[in-house]
């Protein structure tokens, strides 16, 4: 996509209820409110490690952190493959979570544009995020329908595309947290692995928090499709500050 975000397509506001199939009743606002405490729990451990190292930072991992990182990296390494039945079912599940009252006519269909994909075949948009980006979208759609419905705040005239925005968030988090490295090379990455060792769903939860932050940025900036990249950059800066402001 170009720097102006011109390749993004508009997405209709989703008004259907998502009560069926929900596994969590927390709102996205509660997730964001809880994230401060969640992040804070990891700060004391990581900051103490930094102070004790004196001359340089140390980001050595515990055995539990190494194992959790490997599991997450295994997820990241899986590319979406439209020929694999399990991947097909995950994509159908995403459609059913977002549009429970509308029957999907096919895995390649113009209907997908209604969710915010760039074309009629969503698999072409997974190249940057892999299967984990689909898993993140599905987790978000099932657990936090309030933001999915875009009912919070004074909504923008032009809404960001839910699906493509979600894939971009997955890709951004993988880069920001340096998750493809053998061990963390930044304070942010080290803190995240502390959270991951405590909660195996840490990446999925952080994804939802980031989606909420992005939504807030979109509204605060009165953004349009030309501002999408700027919104994503502002969201990343805000998230990094949330991790590091107490270090």
From TrEMBL:
Positions of the ELMO domain: 86-243
Protein known as: ELMO/CED-12 family protein
Species whose genome carries this gene: Actinidia rufa
InterPro entries per UniProt: ELMO_dom, ELMO_domain-containing
């Amino acid at each position: 996509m170009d720097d102006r975000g011109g390749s993004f397509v508009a997405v209709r506001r989703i008004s259907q209820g998502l009560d069926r199939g929900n596994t969590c009743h927390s709102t996205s606002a509660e997730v964001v409110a809880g994230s401060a405490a969640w992040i804070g729990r990891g700060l004391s451990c990581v900051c103490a490690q930094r102070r004790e190292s004196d001359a340089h930072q140390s980001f050595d991992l515990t055995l539990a952190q190494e194992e959790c990182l490997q599991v997450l990296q295994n997820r990241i390494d899986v590319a979406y493959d439209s020929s694999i039945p399990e991947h097909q079912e995950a994509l159908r599940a995403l459609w059913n979570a977002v549009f429970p009252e509308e029957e999907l006519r096919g895995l390649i269909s113009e209907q997908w544009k209604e969710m915010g994909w760039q074309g009629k075949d969503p698999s072409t948009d997974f190249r940057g995020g892999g299967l984990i980006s689909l898993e993140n979208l599905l987790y978000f759609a099932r657990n936090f329908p309030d933001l999915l419905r875009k009912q919070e705040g004074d909504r923008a005239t032009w809404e960001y595309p839910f699906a493509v925005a979600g894939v971009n968030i997955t890709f951004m988090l993988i880069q920001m947290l340096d998750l493809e490295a053998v061990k963390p090379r930044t304070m942010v990455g080290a803190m995240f692995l502390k959270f991951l060792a405590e909660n195996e769903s840490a990446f999925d939860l952080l994804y939802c928090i980031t989606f909420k932050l992005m939504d807030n940025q979109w509204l605060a900036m009165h953004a349009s499709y030309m501002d999408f990249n700027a919104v994503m950059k502002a969201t990343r800066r805000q998230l990094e500050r949330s991790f590091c402001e107490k270090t």
